[in-house]
């Protein structure tokens, strides 16, 4: 169950990052409210996942999901550039997430 909570926390991190961008510096009420609610939920789920997962594993995977997810949303939804170097960086982050997950199974 901890892994489910961790992945959900990572997805919510992507949601709050997107709505933070849409909030225009917290000047728009609805995107600002969505940002705050999903941020709190993301942190809460991360803390629940950390009850049984190692700190380094949980935090790395949470931030990795957020980073790669926000990058993907930026490219697909916001029309940000998907240059070869940015794609390679995203692939390296995903590789790190996979290695972290595998290393937590070995321990």
Question: Which range does the strand content fall in?
Answer: under 5%
Shape designation: flat
Rg computed from alpha carbons, rounded to a whole number of angstroms:
15 Å
- Largest sheet properties: none
Mean pLDDT: 94
Report the uncertain regions: none
Question: Kindly, what is the distance between the CA atoms of the first and last residues, rounded to a whole number of angstroms?
Answer: 18 Å
Helix content: over 70%
Structural class by helix and strand composition: mainly alpha
Give the number of domains. Answer: 1
How many individual β-strands? 0
N-to-C series of helices and strands: HHHH
Helical segment count: 4
GO molecular function, one term: transmembrane transporter activity
Protein name: Guanidinium exporter
Family: Belongs to the drug/metabolite transporter (DMT) superfamily. Small multidrug resistance (SMR) (TC 2.A.7.1) family. Gdx/SugE subfamily.
GO cellular component, one term: plasma membrane
Task: Describe the protein in words.
The protein is mainly α and 107 residues long. It has four helices and no strands. The protein has helices at residues 2-22, 29-49, 55-76, 84-106. α1 runs antiparallel to α2 (29-49), α1 (2-22) packs across α3 and α3 packs antiparallel against α4. The longest helix is centred in the last third of the chain and has 23 residues, at 84-106. The two termini are 18 Å apart. It is a multi-pass membrane protein. Pfam families: Multi_Drug_Res.
